[in-house]
Specification:
2 domains; 2,3-Dihydroxybiphenyl 1,2-Dioxygenase, domain 1; 4-stranded mixed beta sheet; single chain; alpha/beta; 8 strands
Length: 129
């Protein structure tokens, strides 16, 4: 039986989007760059981790992990898959997400008890109230 290991997100700038989602998700961090990771980048002639075309966000012992990979094309339509987040204090969490760079796409709190947001590259996700 298959299990989810990684959620892969196509994006223009993996490092910055990975930092955004690491800040959004409780317990998650951008995977550290050890000697092997730095060697992988050097083999691709990349000197700055900001230019890494593939960045991993993970929490110790937790799956799924989130893997951000650079693609040339931009997002042009609504996501076919999105994350639904929940927080104990959704108003405070909404303020925190907006401060991190999220934007409100649709506020459906009165009728459906959630708000649709977008990350800095336009990928949609929801926050339940």
């Amino acid at each position: 039986m298959a299990r989810i290991h990684d959620v892969v997100v196509d994006c223009r700038h993996p490092a910055s989007l990975a930092r955004f989602w690491a800040a959004v998700l409780d317990g998650y961090d951008v995977a550290p760059y050890d000697d092997a990771e730095l060697a992988r980048l050097r083999e691709m002639r990349i000197d700055d981790v900001e230019d890494d075309p593939t960045v991993l966000v993970e929490a110790p012992g937790v799956f799924p992990r989130f893997f951000f990979q650079r693609v040339d094309e931009s997002k042009v339509v609504k996501n076919r898959l999105h994350l639904d987040l929940v927080a104990d204090d959704s108003d405070a969490e909404l303020a925190r997400l907006l401060a991190l760079g999220a934007t409100v796409v649709a506020d459906r709190r009165e009728s459906h008890h959630w708000i649709t947001l977008a990350d800095p590259e336009g990928n949609e996700f929801c926050l339940s109230s």
